[in-house]
Amino acid sequence: MSSFTSPLAALFVGALLSSLIVSCSSPDRSSADSARAAARTRLPNTQMARAPSAQYLNEFSATAEIAVRADGSNDIGAIADTAMSIEEYASIIENPFVPATDEPLSTFSIDVDAASYSNARRFITDGMLPPPDAVRVEEFINYFAYDYPQPTGADPFSVTTEVGECPWNPSHRLLHVGLQGRRMQAEQLPPSNLTFLIDVSGSMQSPGKLPLLKESFHLLVDQLSERDRVAIVVYAGAAGVVLEPTSGADKRTIHQAIEDLEAGGSTAGAEGIERAYELAAAGFMRNGSNRVILATDGDFNVGISSDDDLVKLIEREREKGIFLSVLGFGMGNLKDAKMEAIADHGNGHYAYIDGATEAKKVFMTEIGATLHTIAKDVKIQVVFNPSLVREYRLIGYENRLLANADFDDDTKDAGEIGAGHSVTAIYEIVPSGAVAGRSRKGLDTLDLPAEFWRDQLVQVRLRYKEPTGTTSRLLTHPAIDRGTALRDASANYRFSAAVAEFGMLLRSSKHAGAGSYSQVLDLARGARGADLEGYRGEFIELVTKAKGLAGS
């Protein structure tokens, strides 16, 4: 686990502390200087581009005030530690290159989360590069929709593969695997039984937290119909039901309940999450979508005796058909790793809402994908032909890796695809050329066709279950390297490669090769396409800002 302390806070933490810490003796200029110095010793080497935004100042001020009230010490350094904007991220060790003769199989769970991208966007918008462990490259890639074909058969998603030149290392190849979930019109979506579990603790007071949360849930409510039901549970110093299950047609009542929410108190919500699941179970829709949506700034002390007990509760409810999604808001308290893990165990997805535009994306543009699962426990296993592949590396998905034996084990949990979701995975491949007689170790038990050994670079194998199913279905899809140059690759391929390269640059990856922000911009601009929602144009602007922050 890694933590990040915002460098912007160091510019003004002393002034804040000197005005807020009434318990300190003589909060004079020297004490403020001491606080500032103490804070600076805890800063990573992160570059600042400009003064902090008004929102940042407001949120840090609120965080600092709460920290000061909670800290009974006169130790200015200790209080600076408490008051500083600290966020926690799981440490990521990048996937290495793997020899195909030793390990011809690569297995992982899909991931449709996109929180890492919107969270990194918040950092860059506020004038600093994100900490490396906040960057999960697969979530950057999967933030964007791609022009994959809709499924035409009985399976709920289509599979697309493409092989081409690697932008940051032209002697290497990239394997691009894309899944496209079946899109559904609003009238085709099943009814929803939703329970909002909302953090109203004191840390949620600032503008980027509870006010933005309210705006987001108002958008969601506007999408509901008379077939849907909504209940609202809040937690802080105490937990309570603020809205009993209510028809989606009664929007006025639901909107008013949301608008009346106020922040205050410490964070504890054992009864909150249990009560939320009780309401979801009481209104369970057998042919509908049953989901608890947890919204918090991330400091979620559920009050249950341990994290293991919380996970067991979430998994137990998941098996009953009640899924859990997590929405993160604000800055300063974000416990990214825990929020992602909770959503994973709940068969839901984790999104970070950094503004009204992201709220619209999650609750309007992608409402079907947000609320309605069309396939669960989706696993991918790529079989590499050791005659054509010397080494390979999966880009991202470090916390989604599975043992090869898990692919055929239907008891192993994996990721979900929502209606209309697209999922993309990219491998970087070191080709070996056509080498006859390579070892077939690890492949003897697979039913591989003769064509695989003759000209297939890989065979992509997938397993998935129906949303309420217990037995998986197997799909296979070949990929052949036809020597496609980068300039001749599809727009899907080039744009996703640009996003992957951007993520690696932000992580200062040793695998970024000759990659550069300028190359990312050239690729993205050339593959922008129609961009009806403007997300790709925004990406180009974000890369331009990051380029300036990196001084390149």
The parts where pLDDT drops under 50 for at least 5 residues are 6-52, 60-84
Q: What's the shape?
A: globular
Count of discrete alpha- or pi-helical segments spanning 4 or more residues: 17
How many strand segments? 18
User: Which percent bin holds the helix content?
Assistant: 25-40%
Q: Structural class, from secondary structure content?
A: alpha+beta
Rg over CA atoms: 24 Å
State mean pLDDT (0 to 100 scale). Answer: 85
- What is the CA–CA distance across the termini? 29 Å
Share of residues in strands: 15-25%
Largest sheet at a glance?
6 strands, mixed
Give a structural overview:
There is one protein chain. The chain has 552 residues and is of the alpha+beta class. The chain has three domains: 2-84, no CATH class; 98-184 and 374-550, no CATH class; 186-365, von Willebrand factor, type A domain (Rossmann fold), CATH 3.40.50. It contains 17 helices and 18 strands. The protein has helices spanning 9-20, 29-40, 54-70, 76-83, 115-125, 137-141, 210-222, 251-259, 270-282, 307-319, 336-345, 356-365, 367-371, 450-455, 491-506, 517-526, 535-550; strands spanning 2-5, 86-89, 98-99, 105-109, 157-165, 173-181, 192-199, 229-235, 239-247, 289-296, 323-329, 350-353, 373-384, 389-394, 415-418, 422-431, 458-465, 473-479. It is globular, with a radius of gyration of 24 Å.
